[in-house]
Amino acid sequence: LEEGGAGCDAAAPSDAAPPSAAVAWLEELVPCAYDGCVWTGRSEGYLAHIASCEHRLVACGNQGCTWKKAFKSLRQHEEACEWRRWVCRCGWVGRGRDIDAHRAKACPLEWRQHGRRVTASAVASGAAKRSMAAC
After folding, report:
1. What single DSSP character describes residue 100?
2. β-strand 85-87 against 93-95: which pairing, if any?
3. Does the model's pTM come out above 0.90?
4. DSSP structural state of residue 72
5. Do residues 83 and 96 make contact, with C-beta atoms less than 8 angstroms apart?
6. What is the DSSP letter of 7?
7. Cβ-contact 58, 71 below 8 angstroms
8. Residues 108-112, mean pLDDT to the nearest whole number
9. 81 vs 65: CA distance, rounded Å
10. Is residue 84 packed enough to be buried (19+ CB in 10 Å), middle (13-18) or exposed (0-12)?
11. Can you tell me the distance from the alpha carbon of 116 to that of 10, in angstroms, rounded to the nearest whole number?
C-alpha cells in the first residue's frame, strides 16, 4: 500500500451493490446446466440441484470402463457393463465380457444338454436325467 493510501479499513466504494440487489439475485430463476434437464429454480437452490441432478455426468465405476453419461442411466449401464467384475459359483473371477465364454467352455458347474444350459444342482437332483429320459 502507498503511504496515505486506502487500507483494509477503508469504506466500501459508493457504487457497491446494495443488500437488496443480493437478495434479488438469490431469488432469480436459473436453469440447470445439464443437457436434458428441465429444472429451473431459485439461485440459492442451484448448487443443491446440480449435485443431485439425474442428468449430471458420471463415470462408470468399473475399472477399465470409459463410459461417462447421465447419472440416470448409470445403474442400467453398470449391470450390463463388459468391465463389470463377476464371481462365478465355481470360484472363477473375471469381467462381464468373459463370463459367457467361461460358462460355455470352462465352468465345471454348468453343463449343456440339447443346446440348453443345465446347472450342476439340476444334474445332482436328477432333473437333468429325467429330461434326458424324455428324449
Report:
1. H
2. antiparallel
3. no
4. G
5. yes
6. -
7. yes
8. 66
9. 8
10. buried
11. 84
